[in-house]
Specification:
Oligomer: homodimer
Structural class of chain A: alpha+beta
Number of strands of chain A: 21
CATH class of the largest domain in chain A: Alpha Beta
Largest interface: A-B, 75 and 75 residues
Largest sheet of chain A: 6 strands, mixed
Helix content of chain A: 25-40%
Number of helices of chain A: 11
CATH superfamily of the largest domain in chain A: Creatinase/methionine aminopeptidase superfamily
Strand content of chain A: 15-25%
Chain lengths: 406, 406
């Protein structure tokens, strides 16, 4: 959590961390600015000192909502520099050097945030030349923010619990919406007699999300039949909702404009479930429950992926463990941490080197995929390990395969 | 436009461009994948050859929608590499080297996209060492995609005109919504007698955007009074709509989940306009019309910012030209290009080195800001220069300051 940053800096030998870039998709900048909505900015965090936010003068009021000390580019004469040098890149380099001088930055400085890879390479190479006494670096594996993100503090848990509640409510509202439709010729129809299609469901869903101040960025998965058998297929808007086909409904919204995520998946069959879907569903539920039971502080995260692969292999399915290129059977990792980004630490996959710890929030999401047989199944809860090491699901929506139709 | 890429590569001496990173906020990846929605990917574009998309095997179906040749990480044994090396960073480095070998990449390679700045620095430094015969580089000023983005092709203009139409329609629906409210004690009230607040307007707005398949990511500016005097203040949800106060309504949605933007601003006063707001409004409209009249292919973009500053200074206002740190008067650039990102080339500001060209789509948005006097004014259209060099506004919504209340 955020209070770990000084310790994490010390462990890594970082005297200063710089977080920079445009705000869009920049979870680290949002994390450091406590959610204040600015277009771009630079946060300087020195060891054992409070962070400082440097941003455009037009954004000073929004920036102040971060609670950080705010300084503007104008205070560093960025616009004068740009005019003199005739070059925004050079002006930004000189501004960074001036910031380092003002805050007496020395030693090892690690850069974080979001930027164009080639430009970052050029900028940090040049900065290394300009400031030979400072060691410019970055992180290649588990970074300081990956570590900090992996556990949540009490303030974050308030936001996480709120979005969990809203997401579960909306899932229920969508199921109710579906159930209200009549069945004709094995498919759902709207009051006007036209087929109820995935696009209709998603439109209803997004309206409901909006009511709770949430957004899905168009990314919700509501995939039926063969598409349900391809984990990242989002479903085709034009496809009708038919009885007896598996529907993978993976809902992972966040607060409008950015904020904490919730991530949950349910698999549904309308009316009835065919035998092969039911069998796969029971197997997925079996290992889901076994994993939930087995989750324990101190265990390697990798262990749960292995346990899931072993179980599915015993049932006769291919897995990434038995065949790394398989596209049927169990074809993905078991889970991932989430917070301001949808995929973060810990990772419950075969290459994870992490262990379960109090404060972590992550998904558990086993699944089975048979695109060529026209179905897929996935069940996913977001879980939280409290300070005592107890595991709680934040996804309380029921896990019933069949939605009974009237 | 996209068809310029080979020429632009040749001009810069780039044999290959690589576009990489997570998809979120990665306009360049979206541009190259023609809008296909994948989580992350790598596009390799060699000179005079069609681009190739490399992504996770789970996303192969979505990736195929790009129309590009799709190859997956599994084809490059990424998962085996990660297991052998025990290190995702090294595995990705080796995969990149293997990709370069497979496609016989030689010469100069420029990297683009989105990434963590420190990690990009480490990765491209290491790749330079591993592949000493290849020159790894990035762009620091106007990049190849900045150039490509700056002009739009016919296919892009279809999407741009569609979103322009929808955005103008929604602006009208919001104005109608506001007008339907009763006035009591100089403020608008809802049917239940409670004050109509900015949050109510934004909730209505977002519902309407959704109907047209648009999203605002919570970023719409609807700011009243003093907040209208701070260009990037978005307005406070709890603030009531009062008569006689300037409202800056800056609406810049895009297609749900990402796509082309439209950007427009209108300033409104409900019921009546105070003299100082009216005077500022007339001045802003005066220079807006002068600029629209003066826009001409071949002219330096800088010219229009200077023209606007000169005019406002003649009227007795401070500008960034007369006082770079001013927070009142005219405090920003005149406009910016837009496309898949909200701010791109051309830039109509004091440091721009660009000229107006056919195919450009950009905003014209003069404004005057007096936070301490409790008001601000801005007018913004998105304009397009057609292949004949004629300038068209895509923002046809009327420019009336006062919204008459019943």
């Amino acid at each position: 959590m955020k209070s770990d940053l000084d310790r994490l800096m010390q462990e890594r030998g970082f005297d200063t961390i710089v977080v920079m870039g445009l705000a869009e998709g920049n979870h680290t900048l949002r994390y450091m600015t406590n959610g204040a909505v600015i277009t771009e900015g630079i946060v300087i965090k020195q060891h054992d000192r409070q962070p400082v936010l440097i941003c455009g003068p037009m954004e000073r009021d929004e920036a102040a909502k971060s609670g950080l000390t705010v300084v503007t580019y104008a205070d560093f004469d960025l616009y004068k520099l740009a005019k003199e040098l005739g070059n925004a890149f050079e002006a930004n380099l000189h501004m960074m050097a001036a910031i380092f001088e003002r805050y007496q930055v020395t030693g090892t400085v690690s850069f974080n945030g979001v930027g164009d890879p080639g430009r970052s390479f050029m900028m940090l190479s040049r900065l290394s030349e300009m400031l030979p006494t400072i060691k410019i670096t970055g992180e290649t594996e588990t970074g300081i923010f990956d570590e900090a993100y992996a556990t949540k503090d009490a303030q974050e848990m308030v936001a996480i619990r709120t979005i969990a509640g809203h997401t579960n409510t909306v899932m229920g509202e969508v199921v109710d919406f579906i159930k209200r439709h009549e069945v004709r010729d094995n498919a759902l129809v709207k009051p006007d007699g036209k087929p109820l299609a995935i696009g209709d469901v998603k439109r209803f869903l997004r309206g409901r999300l909006l009511e709770y101040g949430l957004e899905d960025n168009g990314e919700t998965i509501f995939a039926i039949g063969r598409d349900a058998g391809i984990p990242h297929s989002r479903g085709e808007d034009g496809d009708p909702l038919k009885l007896g086909q598996s529907i993978v409904f993976d809902l992972f919204p966040r607060a409008l404009g950015g904020g904490y995520y919730h991530d949950m998946t349910r698999t549904f069959c309308l009316g009835y479930a065919p035998d092969d879907v039911r069998r796969a569903y029971d197997e997925v539920m079996h290992i889901f429950n076994d994993v939930m039971e087995a989750l324990a502080v101190g265990e390697p995260c990798r262990h749960y992926q292995e346990m899931t692969c072993d179980f599915f292999e015993q049932q006769g399915h291919k897995t990434l463990q038995s065949d790394p290129s398989t596209t049927e059977g169990y074809v993905h990792g078991l889970g991932h941490g989430l917070g301001l980004e949808i995929h973060s630490r810990p990772r419950l996959n075969a290459v994870s080197d992490e262990t379960l710890r109090p404060g972590q929030v992550f998904t558990v999401e086993p699944g089975l995929y048979y695109p060529d047989k026209g179905f897929g199944v996935r069940i996913e809860d977001t879980v939280y390990i409290d300070e005592k090491g107890e595991v709680h699901s934040l996804t309380l929506f029921p896990k019933d395969l069949v939605i009974a139709m009237k």
